[in-house]
Amino acid sequence: MSSSVPYDPYVPPEQNHDVPESQSKAAALKAEIDDTVGIMRDNINKVAERGERLTSIEDKADNLAVSAQGFKRGANRVRKQMWWKDLKMRMCLVLVIIILLVVIIVPIVVHFS
Predict the structure, then answer these.
(1) Cβ(7)–Cβ(18) under 8 Å?
(2) What is the tally of structural domains in the chain?
(3) Where is the chain membrane-spanning (predicted)?
(4) Pairing with 12, which of 31, 44, 76, 91 sits 20 to 30 Å away (CA)?
(5) What is the pTM of this model?
């Protein structure tokens, strides 16, 4: 035993020496708890940031879906316009062929009759 601690027959000698050790254990435990609290705060902040990023991505996905619908409508409109334009061109081509046939065949038929 050290001479700085008075002898007490009712207190076991280990407890006299444990007072500073228990304080150091408490300090170590408090430090560990503080570290754990810090890690948990970091994790909570990361989860909040992740939620913000997910919200941002969700907004972008919604905007993209709206843009896709607009593009689809525009593409259908252009497809129909091109179909009509193609139909008009074919009708004009058929009309020109019929006129050419009439111009060629009518004089031949009139000439032989």
Answers:
(1) no
(2) 1
(3) 89-110
(4) 31
(5) 0.48
Output the six-digit token pair for 33: 């708890």
Q: Is 16 exposed, middle or buried (0-12, 13-18, 19+ CB in 10 A)?
A: middle
Residue 11 lies in a domain: no
Is residue 17 in a domain? no
C-alpha torsion sign, points 42, 43, 46, 51: negative
Show the tokens assigned to 57. 């991505």
Residue ranges for the chain with pLDDT beneath 70? 1-6, 9, 11-20
109, two tokens: 């038929």
| Assigned domain for 16 exists | no
Dihedral over Cα of 26, 28, 33, 34: its sign: positive
Gap between the Cα atoms of 61 and 73, Å rounded: 18
Q: Are 7 and 1 in contact (CB under 8 A)?
A: yes
pLDDT (tens digit per residue) in 50-71: 989 999 999 999 999 999 999 9
pLDDT for residue 91: 98
63 in any annotated domain: yes
